[in-house]
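Possible regression after last week's pipeline update?

I re-ran a chain I had predicted before the update to compare outputs. Posting the input and the new output here so someone can diff against the archived version. Not blocking, just want to make sure nothing changed silently.
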Amino acid sequence: MQTLADKLSRAGLVLSMAMLLMLPQMGYTQAVDEDPTALAMAGDLVIARPLLLVATVVGTVFYVVSLPFSLAGGNAAEAGETLVVGPAKSTFVRCLGCTRSGYKKDVAKYED
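New output (post-update):
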């Protein structure tokens, strides 16, 4: 017979897996043009950017360690994209407080 802690643990695991599967769907429903609030900008600056910088450094270390295996498997580019480029884009190529990576349209325009 399962104890209450086991049941709660399993329920928490199922809930977290369901939330992880819903995250990509929620990303597609957001508007492309974002107007973040001051609180979102402050939270991004103080919490998210340092954590993303750490994720970029740790991903780089993991990429270097896994490089012999990914070269042998022929997926070094995909490993680099996932472990290094993705977190680096989220860290450095994203407006402050925005949830999507990339430049805003009005910033990226180039006029002669």
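Follow-up from reviewer: compared with the archived run. The helical segments are 4-29, 38-73, 76-92, 105-108. Marking as no regression found.
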